[in-house]
């Protein structure tokens, strides 16, 4: 039986969409139980909503961290918040992983404090798997670190490669996002990171990658700073939504196509399963000693449910010791190469 701590507070649509998602998720996952952290305002409602379900535990908390909170407000709420209590459940071994819809910055800070970091890794990176023409692509960072230096990009490459290799058992191919493939392109930070990665991860590093390389399916890991990563991700999600809407509208409006709905509808649904942002709404905080997943603050019940599924899938395949060893192997290679 897997148990997950779920921070349902802080989303744009309120905690009720999370309640709905959790109930539906549990209906299809008999091997899962959930611990929900809620504020006093929603405690009785949550208890009533899940009444009679022995696989749901609700914890009443003093406060929640909102997306609009300033850093000083986050610090004041601190360990009394729903987010911190959910992380504590994971840290103390009562939960196998954590899902939060709350403030990304606060989640990163509190996860570092509660869970700790892998050795020689300064900050965690927000990462998710993007669907492509070929194999899924692990992209990081997606917004946890808006501005980074070259060494931080190298660290992201190491933890990204380690995560990919832990899941697949195969050497990971790693690329660095840039405005061009030529060595002289990009900022000083990106060029320095490129030089370092070329020397330190020659068996993994595939050089600069441009934006139109994302969906070719040739890479396992793509590294960038959180500023470019977040813009890329959200632009991709918006494009996917628009294309799915366009497909449906064009097929349904054409009088002839309505007669053949039984032919084209399965194809559209197959495309939707592969590219819909709602189905890829979870992102990992890589580098934390544990499994911590963040979902969009604007997630509806469907997106939240798929984020729960993402957490479950990653937790079942997660081997903390193997991940740390693979990461340290990459970093040791880095250190030894630097000494030479």
From TrEMBL:
Q: Which InterPro entries match?
A: FA_synthesis (IPR003664), Phospholipid_synth_PlsX-like (IPR012281)
Key word Acyltransferase present: yes
The alphabetized UniProt keywords are:
Acyltransferase, Cytoplasm, Lipid biosynthesis, Lipid metabolism, Phospholipid biosynthesis, Phospholipid metabolism, Transferase
Name assigned to this protein: Phosphate acyltransferase
Q: Which transformation does this protein catalyse, written as a reaction?
A: a fatty acyl-[ACP] + phosphate = an acyl phosphate + holo-[ACP]
Q: Which residues are the signal sequence here?
A: none
What the entry lists under PANTHER family is as follows:
FATTY ACID/PHOSPHOLIPID SYNTHESIS PROTEIN PLSX (PTHR30100), PHOSPHATE ACYLTRANSFERASE (PTHR30100:SF1)
Function (record text): Catalyzes the reversible formation of acyl-phosphate (acyl-PO(4)) from acyl-[acyl-carrier-protein] (acyl-ACP). This enzyme utilizes acyl-ACP as fatty acyl donor, but not acyl-CoA.
Chief place where the protein resides: cytoplasm
Tell me which EC number(s) this protein carries: 2.3.1.274
What are the protein's GO molecular function terms? acyltransferase activity
The UniProt subunit note reads as follows: Homodimer. Probably interacts with PlsY.
**What is stated as this protein's family in its record?**
Belongs to the PlsX family.
Tell where it localizes: Cytoplasm
Q: In which pathway does it act?
A: Lipid metabolism; phospholipid metabolism
